[in-house]
Structures
1.
Amino acid sequence: MRISVIGCGYLGAVHAACMAQLGHDVVGIDVDERKVKLLASGEAPFFEPGLPELLSQASATGRLRFTTDLAQAASADVHFVCVGTPQVKGGYAADLTYVDAAFEALLPHLGAGDVVVGKSTVPVGTAARLAATLADAAPEVTLAWNPEFLREGFAVQDTLHPDRLVYGVASGAAGEHAVEVLDAVYAAPLAEDTPRLVTDYPTAELVKVAANSFLATKISFINAMAELCEATGADVTQLADAIGHDDRIGRKFLNAGLGFGGGCLPKDIRAFMARADELGADQAVTFLKEIDAINVRRRGRMVDLATEVLGGDVAGRRIAVLGAAFKPNSDDVRDSPALDVAVRLMELGAQVRVTDPEAGANAHAVHPDLDVTTFDAAVDGAEAVLLLTEWQQYRELDPDALGERVAARHVLDGRNVLDPGRWRAAGWTYRALGRH
Ligand SMILES: NC(=O)c1ccc[n+]([C@@H]2O[C@H](COP(=O)([O-])OP(=O)(O)OC[C@H]3O[C@@H](n4cnc5c(N)ncnc54)[C@H](O)[C@@H]3O)[C@@H](O)[C@H]2O)c1
Ligand SMILES: O=c1ccn([C@@H]2O[C@H](COP(=O)(O)OP(=O)(O)O[C@H]3O[C@H](CO)[C@@H](O)[C@H](O)[C@H]3O)[C@@H](O)[C@H]2O)c(=O)[nH]1
């Protein structure tokens, strides 16, 4: 198939490279010249395991190219729209400016029989609105909504071997055409018996936000239990293991700690609340307000813990923050809990030094006032070490070796990944969220 991918960020760049890997002829299009230049030279503009290898393989086959020229979409028959839908400034709703602009700009380059496929996460009702625009401007073009469920850090694997494929399509012949085309695009995963669900636009749009709302709810549920563990002396990791053995509950996404961040979960549950409000169905998702509040409270709790171990005031104290990315194996700092805690401590007057294996440059770009440095510079002389993003190398830290470098042996485990007994035996004060 001849495919265009509009928007080559965390989602689109991976999608473009994976589609080429599946044997399609792909043009990736973005308005960001820097990103396009890097991608065109076979380099990933962000950290994503497996992406650089895929980009160089695909470029060598000649099946993958990148451009800022949207007119080149005219050479394709299937157009994936992967532009951002961030939270609007000063509100909860999704900002659809980029989606609308991409659709409008794409219109003149569409040909009869083309299928435009929305992949961005959008408020329910967006696809129907865009389909109506298409029906007027390009009646021989069909719209499908094919939400994406990839996780950063596993994006390549998730795209090549998805858990499921969801197609939201129009009724009648147009919808049947879209299904045929999407089946051809995803022939390889479908051959692996990937479940494929064909539905209408609103269901497809809702599947995506429902999935993220459920994941956010699971995380905030366990973090609410962590609050109770803190109040009672119980241990949230043991609690999660115990309830997780029940297949109906499952252990995945029950890791208590600093909570969820990133470019998806936080903004998606907020946009869902905003959209439900517009639809007069706000009561259906008011619980998400609590999910959000529990999540944000964990960050405050970490700041309080740091203050407590440092004797009641962090002003002037040297604090090492390990991790800036919103999760390990990513350089993404969008709504990063780790970075939020670091900034709050800095604002309280602490001398914060942040380090991260991959996200340092992005952290510095959004907070130029924050001291983002090497691991060594962060920990040398620190009076407290805060592990806030659970990169493997931080999980494996040796408490004896680290103890030689710090000014005081206080460790705060924001992700419940260290062995408290081992750290205490090495003379550290060990504090965590939801366990003692
Ligand atoms: N990041 C993920 O893991 C992930 C997973 C599933 C779904 N999503 C959804 O996918 C969408 C994109 O997310 P992302 O994380 O890739 O965002 P991103 O900010 O990394 O990428 C968006 C890209 O779109 C480009 N862009 C904006 N307007 C454009 C236009 N008119 N024409 C061409 N390019 C344009 C931007 O320059 C940017 O490179 C969002 O709706 C998000 O919720 C993201
Ligand atoms: O038990 C857990 C699991 C995750 N997290 C945190 O939750 C956030 C999100 O993690 P994850 O879902 O792995 O990352 P994303 O890459 O943001 O992926 C989510 O958001 C994407 C964009 O919508 C979806 O496609 C994915 O299916 C969905 O998992 C991160 O801050 C994690 O640290 C926890 O605190 N505890």
2.
Amino acid sequence: LLGPNLPDIWVSFLPLLRAKPNGHNAAILGGKLIAQDIKLKVAEEIGRMKNGIGKIPKLALVLVGDRKDSQTFIHNKLKACDQVGIETLVAQLPENCAEKELIDVVTGFNKDPTIHGIIVQLPLPQHLDEEYIMSSVSPEKDVDGFHPHNMGNLAMRGRKPLFIPCAPKGCIEMLLRHGVEIKGKRAVVIGRSKIGGLPTSLLFQRHHATVSMVHAFTKNPEQITSEADILVADVGMANIVRGNWLKQGAIVIDMGTNQVKINDEIYDQRSQGFQITGDVCYEEAIKVASALTPVPGGMGPVTIAMLLSNTLDSAKYAFGLV
Ligand SMILES: NC(=O)C1=CN([C@@H]2O[C@H](COP(=O)(O)OP(=O)(O)OC[C@H]3O[C@@H](n4cnc5c(N)ncnc54)[C@H](OP(=O)(O)O)[C@@H]3O)[C@@H](O)[C@H]2O)C=CC1
Ligand SMILES: Nc1nc(=O)c2c([nH]1)NC[C@@H]1CN(c3ccc(C(=O)N[C@@H](CCC(=O)O)C(=O)O)cc3)C=[N+]21
């Protein structure tokens, strides 16, 4: 299910997680090593592709407006593509662009046979119909996995989407690589967005976990989260998940990437007064959880590695190599 490029079950190269003796801090589930390993394999395959048929994968990125966080994410994606040998193309549109302009750009990319993957960076400005735009991306180039064909096939047992969204795929990868068994576990996902929470819950079901969803209308979320063997947070609110929301020994995956202002005393030029924080209160969670992903350096790099892997898969389909 993870795609032609990645085995369904990894042989873990990381030390398997062990139960945490009481009073000890959680194991930190870093994402950089995993991302590096995936990138190496992707780069290797692209090298073989280039030597064999003289072609390489190409990814088109569409950015509307000038949100600082979106610019950072796009920058990280471009850098990663460059590292593994994926060609890139960026279309930048102004904040107030008409919907038709954006659709025309996407349609042009759909028709261009040299392009294998298309991503439209989210969130989009309010006046644009996100669902309509996601549906305009050809499902065969939908390396984000947000097209209803791909999301629908992910939801239905026995069907195979062409692409699985990168962050959820990265989340399963993170757990499998650390030897965490998912089958039969109680998983709770906070957030139900198409980028994060929803496809994560669908993937957990595919891996035979029992899944509960927590969202903005959930009453007493901490009652539900405290039953989770595996907890995923994808909300976008710094520190919303407190230590007392967790079951002792839980495995916690923090997908939140929130830019928070730091106080002026520790202001430094490099960070420009901001730092990245997850949705989970790290200092509290580390005392209760058995394992926890850090932010930055946890899910972010693995998510980007998955985008590379999806783009390679797409090129392989296009070149008839699978
Ligand atoms: N690490 C990574 O690779 C990735 C990180 N992200 C990060 O994840 C975060 C979320 O992004 P995204 O999924 O796009 O966000 P969205 O805003 O699309 O979704 C947020 C979700 O959180 C829910 N929510 C809001 N408030 C609460 C609350 N008080 N209690 C419980 N649930 C709540 C919403 O519920 P409702 O549906 O009811 O409104 C919604 O489902 C961001 O920080 C983003 O940067 C995203 C993707 C990848
Ligand atoms: N069409 C679309 N596809 C996405 O996959 C998508 C999106 N829109 N919109 C926003 C979210 C968020 N997301 C992240 C990607 C990388 C990091 C990442 O690289 N994080 C680094 C640090 C980030 C930094 O350097 O500031 C880390 O956690 O170590 C984070 C979050 C993808 N998303």
